[in-house]
Amino acid sequence: MNDFLAAAVQLTSSQDPEINFNAAEEQIDLAARRGADLVGLPENFAFMGEDSRRLELASDLAERCSRFLVTMARRYQVVLLGGGFPAPVGDGSRTLNRAELVDRDGQLLARYDKIHLFDVDLPDGNTYRESATVNAGQELPPVVDVPGLCKVGLSICYDVRFPELYRHLVGAGADLLMIPAAFTAFTGKDHWQVLLQARAIENTAYVLAPAQTGQHYGRRHSHGHALVIDPWGTVLADAGVLPGAAIAPVNTAHQGHVRDQMPSLRHRRPALF
Ligand SMILES: O=C(O)CNC(=O)[C@H](CS)NC(=O)CCC(=O)C(=O)O
After folding, report:
1. Whose CA is nearest to atom 15 of ligand 1?
2. What pTM did the predictor assign?
3. CA-223 nearest atom, ligand 1
4. What's the pLDDT tens digit per position in 7-42?
5. Is 192 in the pocket of ligand 1 (CB under 6 A)?
6. How far is CA 190 from CA 126, 196, 223, 232, 234, in A?
7. CATH of the domain at 172
8. I need a labelling partner for 265 at 20 to 30 A (CA). Which of 59, 68, 183, 241 fits?
9. How many domains are there within the chain?
10. What range defines the domain where residue 237 resides?
11. What is the ipTM of this complex?
């Protein structure tokens, strides 16, 4: 594992993929100029809108997203995560919610289809039924040893509420947990930072959490606060509520130091569970 700069991009994605791709490129460009080696885009970076429109666009959008990630990674020479885009399945009436991690040379390093779907009625009157149009992925997310960086584990958004997924990633050697999201404003204000810090602390791992922010369409508001968190749980960078990025150093010696000082991973009692 080397030392490098990681960027968690924050966007207000809309129903217009053209605008969204341009906004994403602007933030990738800025992050690369600031020296970022690893850049994460949030869930729904290319489209944030009504389900019916998402399904209409899905087959075209999935291809465009994969191509966009390859083009951007090469153009800006960064390792790039597309934190979630619709990939059509079957006759195209349903999708997977897919993340892809691409190397600087455009090579696909890892792919993950979200396994926990957000089917929740919130007290603010908003109802979410991700499973109405999305199929759950059937495989645990991968950990990939990114050449020149570190071992990166993937996940998406609502996954953050399932600590066993991150235990799996850390068991597979992850140093850094990617948690790209489009967290609701309502849940985000109480849960977002707490959950992310918990995942960092309990796994003594870096957390990179790109985010959606602001109003997208209708009543859909996202919480923002893209974060980079260190293995002690300290928030190293917070993108606030405007489009931008949280950028901070990932430091190998520091992770080793934290893991020596707080050896909780070594104190697990798997035999009792
Ligand atoms: O709606 C779309 O356009 C695409 N999908 C999403 O934004 C996903 C599923 S609805 N959002 C979440 O998982 C939010 C989780 C969350 O906010 C929490 O766990 O509190």
Report:
1. 158
2. 0.97
3. 17
4. 999 999 999 999 999 999 999 999 999 999 999 999
5. no
6. 16, 12, 10, 21, 18
7. 3.60.110.10
8. 183
9. 1
10. 4-272
11. 0.89
